[in-house]
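User: Quick sanity check before I run a bigger batch. Here is a single chain. Can you write out its predicted 3D structure?
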Amino acid sequence: QVQLVESGGGLVQAGGSLRLSCAASGRTFSSYDMGWFRQAPGKEREFVAAISGSGGTIKYAGFVKGRFTASRDNARKMVYLQMNSLKPEDTAVYSCAANREGNMLYSDAREYDYWGQGTQVTVSS
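Assistant: Done. Predicted structure follows.
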C-alpha cells in the first residue's frame, strides 16, 4: 500500500505562483515514477508532468510552456510541482500519482497505481 497526500493548493491571482507538495509513504518510493495530473469540473483528467524515480528525467505537458517545474526529494519521500505564471485556465484539482513500473513517464492516468486525494488550485483573473 502506498499513500499519497497532496498539499499546497489555494487561491491565487493570475500571474502568481504556488508550490504543490505530495508526501508519499511507500518503502520503494525512489523506484516509482511520479505523475501530476489535474482535472477541472466537467473536464477530463489531464496530464501535467511526470518525473522518474531518480528525478533525472521529467516530462511535461505542452501547455506548461516552461511555467511549471516538477522535482522530488527521495530522502523525504516528497514530490513537488512549482507552478509560476499561473493562468485562470490552470484552475483545477491537482493530484499526484505513483507508477510502480518506473522508467516510463506515462502521460496516461490509467497507467498509475496509486493516487492522492487532490488539492484545489484556483487562479482568479
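The radius of gyration is 13 Å.

User: Great, the batch can go ahead then.
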